[in-house]
Design a protein that fits this description.
CATH architecture of the domain at 393-561: Orthogonal Bundle
Structural class: alpha/beta
CATH class of the domain at 393-561: Mainly Alpha
Number of helices: 21
Strand order of the largest sheet: 5-4-9-10
Helix content: 40-55%
Number of strands: 13
Oligomer: single chain
Shape: flat
Mean pLDDT: 92
Radius of gyration: 29 Å
Strand content: 5-15%
Length: 570
Amino acid sequence: MDMKQRIADLAAEMLHTAFPEAENLPDDLAALLEVPPDPALGDYAFPCFKLSRALRMGPPAIAQKMAAADAHPEVARVECVGGYLNFFFNRENFARELLSAILADPEKWGAGDEGSGKTVCMDYSSINIAKRFHLGHLSTTVIGNSLKRIYDFRGWKTVSINHLGDWGTQFGKMICAYKKWGDKEKVEQGGVDEMTRLYVRFNKEAAENPALEDEGRAWFKRIEDGDPEALEIFQWFKEVTLRDAMKVYDVLDVHFDSYAGESFYADKTGRVVQELQDKGLLKDSDGAKIVDLEAYGMPPCLILKSDGATLYHTRDIAAAIYRKETYHFDQSLYIVAYQQDLHFKQLFKVLELMGYDWAKDQCKHVSFGMVSYEGQAMATRSGHVVLLDELLTRAQEKALDIINEKSPNLENKEEVARQVGVGAVVYATLQNNRIKDIDFWWDRALNFDGETGPYVQYTHARCGSVLRKAPDELPSPNYAALTDDEAQALLRLLSRFPETVQEAALRNEPSMVTRATTEIAKAYNKYYYEHRILDEDAAATAARIDLTKACKQVIKTGLYLIGVHAPERM
């Protein structure tokens, strides 16, 4: 049940009844509806100002004439305030209709079909081979995972892509280091840490023996040329890295449809270079090949280095074309930090200049801010790096300590601690607009009393506790028991949840779902403290149980959409 649309339809009927001869009136009145800042001013407000020109009448007079045409008290009552029509839901009917709609298919409340028949590609996480997964990778991973779930929920076919950083001379250096000083068993056991140790040793040795650099480049050339030994070791390095990364992805409940990284497109860049050449877009610049973007206010896009080697842009152009031809996407999202804004502006412009018009409207850079840890920025060179697997492990340990203190007799405490600890990290990352920088602090993230993941999860568990205590059999609900301000505030938030999820997809903004779910949790807790849910009036109890059921499911859905589990008990 879409109450916003129902109010819009009611406003349209009132408008056409009051002004039957009027022309050039807006078609979509839902887009004009506003949510008043104070519930005392109504559930929705319709501003009449934009009608003045067409009707040649002042907004207050329009509002009064429209109000006189109202004949639907079962939906809402209407009040005129200046140039506004304020709509107040019929509280009992609103509760009945909304809860009936939610409970008819609880898990689908907020789902949609606007993505039906459409495909969206999502490029996120994109870890580097032979490097540890650190806190700096968290935002792209959880934003991408949440957007995948949101788009799925709204009917899209999603293709999640982990565009691995697996190309470049450094891999030749790593093979060289492995051949000189490595041990297969140590790499298998030590994983990425052992590969990093070998790479660090290579750079240290190369500083004293520059000839090693040539050996590293030679090994990378062998990768490029398809040498069996080089490819075998290279592929093995990737497998070891992904094996380590999968431990983190499993904890975060993140999955991908494709792990095609930079190396996958290495043999597809020739087509890109040829197309650019054929279309007169490629220019020489000190031996390198560029696309001149000065006319568009951007520096040149480097396509080939002077030695003929490809670059990120070359491979990203190849990847974009491959994805369009393979998946036939309607949208292609790149969930990458805002520092890469220029890179993607150049990428999309070059694709557009090549004649791929879809790049202009269908390719989007979903940027986000930087993450710091308790006031300190991540800095690989200075050694201030928080490894993600260690962070998640610590989160679970801290959550277990809190659970042992608050709920020592809770069953499956370790599993709940995993859900709460990991959920706290994910929630803290998706709590604010994605473009904002994040400073992660333990005391904030794991607080059970603030606007945090544990707080919302605890509210879900509280709903479950209420439902477990409810009688097995109850009479038909008396929805007049839900006409109080606290129940209505909660019902309004539940009714707007589908609109929020839809808007989150349109804006690629998971924080909208996070905030909406948090507000529902806050409203339920206020209702819980103000009203006795289980009392002597069985019909009133039945109505309050329906409200609790709906609230519990919508919180669970909201948490799922941001990638957080909803424990039944805490």
